[in-house]
Amino acid sequence: MTTIVNNPPPASDEKGGYMGLIIGIIVIMIAAYIFMTFGLPAIRQMQVGTPQINIPSKIDVNINQTK
Questions:
Q1: How many CA atoms lie within 13 A of 38 on its CB side?
Q2: Model pTM greater than 0.85?
C-alpha cells in the first residue's frame, strides 16, 4: 500500500514581512546622508591635473650678520 505524506505549507510570518525592506531603506538613507556630508565636499576639493609650482629664477642666499 502507498503511503502519502502531506506536509503543511510553510507558515508565513505576516508581522515581519516588510521588516527587511524597512531596514534596507533606512540603511540606504544613512549611506546617502554620509555620502552627501563627506563625499561631495571631498570630490569638489579634488584638483584635476597637475599642481602648478612656481620656482623663482634667482634665490638670494646672503645672510646679513650684525657685528
A1: 4
A2: no
Concatenated DSSP letters for 14-66? STTTTHHHHHHHHHHHHHHHHIIIIIHHHHHHPPPSPPP----S---------
What letter represents residue 61's amino acid? Answer: V
pLDDT at 61: 83
Which amino acid is located at 31 in the chain? A
What would the grid cell of residue 43 be?
A: 570630490
Amino acid (1-letter code) at residue 6: N
- pLDDT tens string 7-51: 887 776 566 568 888 999 999 999 999 999 999 888 888 877 777
